[in-house]
């Protein structure tokens, strides 16, 4: 049964079973299947699971070069916008300030990124990709593209476009619940 079919089945089941008792609980194979069906009816579960799958594909395609998709994203954005400050970077990719600063610091320690104080506001850091960081981005760019293609490959081209449009709408309409992000 597909996740979409599970979603339909579990949605109706969850209404019927919303007062399920936990007394004398024992897990059988049927219960385990039903529990997965309930999980598969939750968009958050499916999104998290799809993210796990994409990360695994990224590492497989990128030969596990010890750069995460978030690090690759940061390097890619900074490479295209040299001197971008950390706050703007976080908004660009939807990361909170602490995470952005932590990832930027780790990339700097590895020699992939330089952080320099903003000449007009010493509280802000401007970011620059080093030559070594640019080499990493170049080496991983095709692998990232292959991972994204593999992730969407089970869908027909029109479905791929539809999925991307729908995910974009969900992000746009719910952005207030995540880290501040520049509009898509």
Helical stretch count?
8
Overall spatial form: globular
CATH superfamily of the largest domain: Winged helix-like DNA-binding domain superfamily/Winged helix DNA-binding domain
CATH classification class of the largest domain: Mainly Alpha
- State the strand order across the main sheet: 1-3-2
Please state roughly what percent of the residues sit in beta strands, choosing from under 5%, 5-15%, 15-25%, 25-35%, 35-45% or over 45%: 5-15%
What is the share of helical residues?
55-70%
Protein name: MarR-family transcriptional regulator
GO molecular function, one term: DNA-binding transcription factor activity
GO biological process, one term: response to stress
Organism: Bordetella avium (strain 197N)
Question: TL;DR?
Answer:
64% of the residues lie in helices and 7% in strands. The protein has 184 residues and is mostly helical. It has a three-stranded antiparallel β-sheet with strand order 1-3-2.
Structure commentary:
The chain has 184 residues and is mainly alpha-helical. The chain folds into two domains: 1-11 and 29-61; 66-184, Winged helix-like DNA-binding domain superfamily/Winged helix DNA-binding domain (Arc Repressor Mutant, subunit A), CATH 1.10.10.10. It has helices at residues 3-16, 29-40, 43-61, 69-80, 86-93, 97-109, 131-152, 157-174, and strands at 84-85, 113-117, 125-129. Strand 2 (113-117) and strand 3 (125-129) form a beta hairpin. The longest helix has 22 residues, at 131-152. The protein starts with a helix and ends in a 10-residue tail after the last helix. Residues 12-27 have a biased composition (Polar residues). Residues 1-11 have a biased composition (Basic and acidic residues). Pfam families: MarR (PF01047). Residues 1-27 are annotated as: Disordered.
């Amino acid at each position: 049964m597909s996740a979409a079919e599970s979603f339909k089945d579990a949605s109706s089941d969850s209404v019927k079973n919303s007062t399920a008792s936990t007394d004398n609980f024992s897990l059988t194979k049927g219960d385990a299947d039903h529990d997965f069906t309930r999980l598969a009816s939750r968009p958050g579960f499916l999104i998290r699971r799809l993210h796990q799958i994409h990360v695994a594909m990224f590492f497989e395609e990128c030969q596990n070069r010890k750069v995460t998709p978030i690090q690759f994203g940061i390097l890619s954005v900074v490479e295209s916008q040299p001197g971008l400050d950390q706050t703007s970077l976080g908004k660009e990719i939807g990361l909170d300030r602490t995470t952005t600063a932590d990832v930027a610091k780790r990339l700097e320690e590895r020699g992939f990124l330089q952080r320099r104080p903003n000449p007009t506001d010493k509280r802000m850091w401007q970011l620059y990709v080093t030559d070594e960081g640019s080499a990493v981005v170049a080496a991983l760019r095709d692998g990232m593209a292959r991972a994204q293609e593999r992730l969407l490959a089970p869908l027909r081209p029109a479905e791929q476009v539809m999925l991307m449009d729908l995910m974009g709408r969900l992000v746009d309409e719910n952005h207030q619940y995540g880290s501040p992000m520049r509009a898509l």
